[in-house]
TrEMBL record:
The chain crosses the membrane at residues 17-43, 55-72, 92-117, 129-147, 185-209, 221-239, 392-413, 425-448, 468-492. Belongs to the cytochrome ubiquinol oxidase subunit 1 family. Keywords: Cell inner membrane, Cell membrane, Electron transport, Heme, Iron, Membrane, Metal-binding, Transmembrane, Transmembrane helix, Transport. This is Cytochrome bd-I ubiquinol oxidase subunit 1 apoprotein. It is found in: Cell inner membrane. GO terms for cellular component: cytochrome complex; plasma membrane. Pfam families: Cyt_bd_oxida_I. GO terms for biological process: aerobic electron transport chain. It is a multi-pass membrane protein.
Length: 531
């Protein structure tokens, strides 16, 4: 495959987005976990909980700072490499990004500063309120970004203006309440909670294996296992909602996830394992589970899920209808200076929903109206993303999700009903499994973003038309620069994290140890009296 500006721009966006999202879920999870721990401290006045909050808060701060840096560079490359996309949908995409900047990021930055420097300057309750505001602001930040991304997956609340050649906002509330965006938000945030919980569980298990900071580690495992169990159950339930939305609004993505080449009789089976072959349109050595995909995708036993071949046939018809829309748009452009006939606009509105399909032809012919039958067929075939990466990314994500459900359930059971005693094999499992949520989350983003291809905005704007007018050399140089920058930031992040984890909790040590000694003496005294 020839590497051009489009391919390099996509690679650069994938690199920056996937790297940035290494930090976002841990920020989401640790912000809430720290708020929970500080709540327990304020309620009980036990110094151990203050020490726990400060320790995990320090790791949150490191991750937050590096995450902000990677987010800024990501936005820079977005504006640099995707200029036409920014022009085409700026009226819609700019609104949630502005809300994210004005509300969430401003709140987040302000309250994070108050939280870190206000321990001895604010009252306990005031500081606790700030801690919860940090967690809320962090979630608000994710909300507006995911609203913007959800609109790219399922564009609502907007209409194309054939005179200005841009998408224009028609309803902010439709954009904000987009069902795809809302499902994506709660699914992503819950995944962040699981990520933070698995991180706390893994570090705490390592402390127990080393015989260090026993009291902090046990209490941290109790919090992480309970919060993580709720989080992973939420991820699974809300993942089902995302699957249902995809079957309704992104049929090709759903078919690619399942490698469903032909429409099956309802209810469709779920392919547990197999090797999709996009050349022959078959999945080799497939293992099917009856009914499951029909229930996930349609929540019924009677509705079909369209197969890839049938969707390509539909796309062929939509390309033809899109050519009609393109022709009407060109007529409107010709009348732009002299006044556009309203009847022409009305005719365009009847066909505009397929305009994006005609734009797929622009990679093969300058004027889609001149496209041959072969080129129309090729454009229809282009609507199919590469199946095997989506197929396997989805299964890795789901497999890791159910694995973390079992692990969290086991640790919750041991923490709640076995006096927080954990066998060494389970502690080693928690340490080894620490990277699992990051892998699952990155796989989820591959399914979401790679599965949307060939569209930047689903069925509206093809990716090939969204890039800036840059040379291959310019994009390659900036890609190399981003890789070097992110590699340096990754080394800094890992170095600081490992340094503070090895160092362990170092604040309020004397106060905590004194309280723990008095607490143990009280328990010993009660035991003697009981005898």
């Amino acid at each position: 495959m020839e590497i051009g500006v489009v391919e390099l721009s996509r690679l650069q966006f994938a690199t920056t987005a996937l790297f940035h999202f290494l930090f976002v879920p841990l920020t989401l999870g640790l912000s809430v976990i720290c708020a929970i721990m500080e709540t327990v401290y304020v309620m009980t006045d036990r110094p151990i909980w203050r020490q726990m909050t400060k320790f995990w808060g320090a790791l949150f701060g490191i991750n937050f700072a590096i995450g902000v840096a990677t987010g800024i560079t990501m936005e820079f490359q977005f504006g640099m490499n995707w200029a036409y996309y920014s022009h085409y949908v700026g009226d819609i995409f700019g609104a949630p990004l502005a809300m994210e900047g004005l509300m969430a990021f401003f709140m987040e930055a302000t309250f994070v500063g108050l939280w870190f420097f206000g321990w001895d300057r604010l009252s306990k309750r005031a500081h606790l309120m700030v801690g919860w505001l940090v967690a809320i602001a962090t979630n608000f930040s994710a909300l507006w970004i995911l609203i913007a991304n959800g609109w790219m997956q399922f564009p609502v609340g907007a209409q194309f203006n054939p005179i200005t050649m841009r998408m224009e906002l028609t309803s902010f509330f439709d954009v904000a309440l987009n069902p795809v965006a809302q499902a994506k938000f709660v699914h992503t945030v819950s995944a962040g909670y699981v990520c933070g919980s698995v991180f706390v569980l893994g570090v705490s298990s390592w402390y127990l294996l080393k015989g260090r900071h026993i009291q902090l580690a046990r209490r941290s495992i109790a919090v992480a296992s309970a919060f993580g169990l709720a989080g992973v159950m939420s991820v699974i339930v809300l993942g089902d909602e995302s699957g249902y939305d995809a079957s309704e609004n992104q049929k090709m993505k759903m078919a690619a996830i399942e490698a469903m080449w032909e429409t099956e009789p309802a209810p469709a089976s779920f392919t547990l394992f197999g090797f999709p072959d996009q050349t022959t349109h078959e999945t080799k050595w497939a293992i099917h589970i009856p009914y499951v995909m029909g229930l996930i995708g349609t929540r019924s036993l009677t509705q079909e899920i369209a197969g890839i071949d049938q969707l390509v046939t539909r796309a062929h018809d939509r390309v033809r209808n899109g050519i009609v829309a393109y022709d009407l748009m060109m007529q409107i452009q010709a009348q732009r200076d002299s006044g556009v006939d309203p009847a022409l606009i009305a005719r365009f509105r009847r066909h505009e929903h397929d305009l994006g399909y005609a734009l797929l032809l622009k990679t093969r012919v300058e004027d889609p109206r001149q496209a041959t039958e072969e080129q129309i067929s090729q454009a229809a075939a282009d609507t199919v993303p590469h199946v095997w990466p989506i197929f396997w990314a989805f299964r890795i994500m789901v497999g890791l999700g159910f694995g973390m459900l079992c692990m969290m359930g086991y640790f919750f059971w041991r923490a709640s009903f076995r006096r927080m005693s954990f066998p060494r094999w389970a502690l080693w499992l928690a340490v080894i499994a620490t990277p699992a949520p990051w892998i699952a989350i990155e796989m989820g983003w591959i399914v979401a973003e790679y599965g949307r291809q060939p569209w930047t905005v689903a069925e509206v704007l093809p990716t090939a038309l969204s890039v800036s007018h840059l040379s291959v050399a310019e994009v390659a140089v900036t890609l190399a620069g981003f890789v070097l920058l992110y590699s340096a930031l990754f080394v800094v992040e890992m170095g600081l994290m490992f340094k503070y984890i090895r160092k362990g909790p170092h604040e309020d040590v004397a106060l905590t140890e004194d309280w723990m000694q008095r607490h143990e003496n009280r328990l010993s005294g009660r035991a003697e009296v009981a005898k």
